[in-house]
Amino acid sequence: MKFVDEFRDPAAARALVKSITELAGTDHFKFMEVCGGHTHTIYRHGIEHLLPEAVELVHGPGCPVCVIPMGRVDDAMWLAEQSGVIFTTFGDMMRVPGSKGNLIEAKARGADVRFVYSPLDALKVALDNPERHVVFFAVGFETTAPSTAVTLVRARALGVRNFSVFCNHVTIVPPIKAILESPDLRLSGFLGPGHVSTVVGLRPYRFVSQVYGKPMVVAGFEPLDILASVHMLLQQIREGRCEIENQYTRVVRPDGNTQALKLMAETFELRPHFEWRGLGFISQSALKVHPDYAEFDAEAKFEMPGIRVADPKACQCGEVLKGVIKPWECKVFGTACTPETPIGTCMVSPEGACAAYYNFGRLHRETAQLLGQRG
Amino acid sequence: MCLGIPGQVVDIVDAEQSLAKVDVNGVRRNISVRLLADDNLQVGDWVLVHVGFAMAKIDEHEAATTLDQVQKMGADYVNEMEAFTSSEIR
Predict the structure, then answer these.
(1) Is A140 on the interface with B (CB under 8 A)?
(2) Closest C-alpha among A274, A272, A336, A339 to residue A71
(3) What pLDDT, on the 0 to 100 scale, is given for residue A367?
(4) Full-model pTM
(5) What is the mean pLDDT of chain A?
(6) Which residues does chain B have within 8 Å of residue A36's beta carbon, measured at their own beta carbons?
(7) Phi, psi of A166 (to 5 degrees)
(8) Which residues in B have their CB inside 8 Å of a CB on A?
(9) Average pLDDT of A13-34?
């Protein structure tokens, strides 16, 4: 597959790893990625096992599915259970547990929950079912928000009256800042989110290097992209530089996507604050439907319970999301919490660190020893 | 969720409604190219596809440059090691 296969060349990867090992030397580096897609690639291709011990990859709050608190999932289920509603959602939200089960279970109990690939598909469901009300569960960072924005504009243009969006879009900068402010972590740098950056460009990350003195390399999603980005980070550190660099130049432009940003400004507003699973309340970190588009705002049209639900005591998703512990260090990883019976969102979404590790992780000796020690 | 896959534009279905047909690894579907309204999209262009939308044009020249850079990053070390191995210092 073009633009994919070439970036998976094993020989190039081996050579890159040798270079990385040489650059890293005997120091220890901790690089955090904040994108579920990166977590997925790293585990799927066993990149953390290719890298030398000196380089540790830490997974941050990059999975927009994983950070949605249980209370919001409960609200989604409530919407799905309203009579006359067709509840449309991306696949990965369907098995995220709220306090009363998940959307698939709601569907089994009779709610009309439908998987859609695109918010435009959800709009089509509304057009095809004028006597029902269609709600779209909008989830995702700035990569996905523009798609919801275009859909809202199109719904308005078509005069659609039976469509609304339950908006749970979140923005990338606030959690990065929260991580940098967190006392638990000592990071050497960041792998920047590749696809979010196609929308927002590089400028929003300037504070990372200028205020917090950490380098960042915006990385693509193939193994060679990730390895090259690690190399670039190490090169920066060795040369005493601290910059925001772009490794994913084939799709990321420094100014991002102006059309996307314009449409987002027209259709969304920043919420004063929003609760992130594991990170607590973060101000200005999430989007709501703009008052100008209130007729498409599910939160304006419906009186949702809006109850805040605390995570189950056993759940350590918060620590995993902040990169404080690794998936296998969670007390319930692989035992009570598995992809089939997830307790927390890190296990549900295929991009969650726990699911990625469970599905693709290669158990090497140290991990086996660790698990053996826990008995 | 962040999954963006490369696809090639095979048809501009409706320029006014910003609809194009792309080929992703042999599968052809319509997507919205509204976000690339400023990019003068042509048949044959490659785009990054995410939830039914083209997010960015894939710059083929940049892709080639990136691959070159990747090769170079690896080659520097390998070349150095080869040179070192060839040394006959006594």
Answers:
(1) yes
(2) A274
(3) 61
(4) 0.90
(5) 91
(6) 1-2
(7) -95, 100
(8) 1-6, 8, 25, 31-32, 34-38, 46, 48, 50-53, 55-60, 62-63, 65-67, 69-71, 73-78, 81
(9) 93
